Amino acid sequence: MIPSQKFTGESPNYEYLNAVVRARGTRLLGREVFFRLASGSLEDMELFLLESRYGQRYREQLATGGGSLLGRIENALAGGAADILQETASLARGESLLFFSVILSLGDLHNGRILLRASPGGIRPGNSPAWHRYSLADPSFYDDLWKKCPTPADGAVRCHEENHDFARILGESYRVLHETGDLFRAERALYSGWFSRWRERIRGKNNENGRRMAEYLGRLTDLWNFSIWLRPGEETAGERAFLPGGWGFSQEALETLDDPHKLFSGSGWSFVPGKHGEKTRSDLFRSFQRHFYEWQTSLYRKNLLGADVSLGYAAQVVQEWKNLSLLAVGLSLRMPAAELERHLFLPGEGHHG
């Protein structure tokens, strides 16, 4: 879904958009629904989906036939979440559409990363992965790259044929991967290009909403930089490893500090490393990632006449999709309910900031 230039040039309609979003927010699933599903079976989840707002997408999966029960559920969930976000974005105008487009484009970033990680070699499954289908670029573009472009060079050429910004960013990342064979450098090129593109688009928006979107991009940059900071030292040698433009972590702090408590001290983040007993680097990153989503979700109840509501709502929609997808996989593996619940990120958990 590429935003219409006609609509991005109009006056923003936050009051109308946010009223619709708040009404739709009442349909987000509560904690008790996830607990009930965790205690059931995959067949129970199928019946639930048929009666939910994911029902139309699930019936489409049934009509096409083929595929496993789990595959049908995962496809329906991905399509349903995309429908919710794109239908909401279609109501936005002017600045509010521009800012909602940043949210949707996060799907492009996720999809691009999936493709880069699948490019260096190996046999891919015949079916495409569960794309973040709310992306600005059409999912058929990502299907094409997955099915027809097994090498980075193939991907770079295919991206060159597309006429939209993210294809150019992804194409450059493929080129880096082709020339260097270095996945980290290719991913960095992807993230750097994505952040630069959106910072350029929102530059000059110096009102409260513009500052919020700049903060959002800065916090996302912190998330990327923290994932790099957690890597062994030899992988992050050199100041070019970290992306500029972070919200709370300075380049100096990232390059010189080796204690996570010192890194977060004075950063503006309220995250406390190790508070939840994280034992590994990956545990610590997932905990910080969850903290970021808690912050984004909290915006839903902040400025009711600005971009906050859309940012908070989108975080909840994506998290609902992820929780339901995780439940589906866990139920297919017959995991105990208590174990499944431990992996869920449910509404109302944690603190933010």
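Second entry:
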Amino acid sequence: MSERKVRPRQNFPKNFPVIIRFETLEAFEQHDDAVLGIIKQDAGTDQFPASQSLPPIYQPPPLTDDAIGKLEHLGGVIVIESEE
């Protein structure tokens, strides 16, 4: 997947704009609640732009390095650098 522009975690600033995608519909079904929980805990909101596709593409508020790391550990969840 050449579209993935993922930086190593140590290069993420404290809060970094990201786009979150799911590799498959199954990954979305398995991890969506966890992804939304991580975003809400880190950003303080669950209101952010999301595509209407299945699986959806999320554009949450900027997230901390800790939240990005948690998301990266969920199988099938892709965290992509966003240019905002």
